Amino acid sequence: MDLSLLKTILQVLLAVTGLLLVLLVLLHRGKGGGLSDMFGGGVSAGAGSSGVAERNLNRLTVTVAVIWALCAIGLGVLARIMLVTG
């Protein structure tokens, strides 16, 4: 695989996961609510962070964050390889 193609794929994946990560973080329920309240997430105050939906949102957010970090690291390694090989 061509290194420039791999670089482009990683850059696109980094941008997409970055935007998705921002959206997922905004959907989390904080102390004062957040965007999740706007979409009906703040219906019951007692079931906030212990619900299945909130746990799944946490897992999805962590997964997307790990993918984003791996893309960033991969781009750094790829830049180093491209610098060395010319």
Automatic annotation (TrEMBL):
Name the residues that span the membrane: 61-83
Record's subcellular location: Cell membrane; Membrane
Instruction: Identify the main location.
Output: membrane
Membrane topology, as annotated, equals: Multi-pass membrane protein
Per the UniProt record, one Pfam family is SecG
Keywords for this entry? Cell membrane, Membrane, Protein transport, Translocation, Transmembrane, Transmembrane helix, Transport
As for family, the record states: Belongs to the SecG family.
What this chain does, per the entry, is described as: Involved in protein export. Participates in an early event of protein translocation.
Its name, as the record gives it, is: Protein-export membrane protein SecG
Its gene name is secG
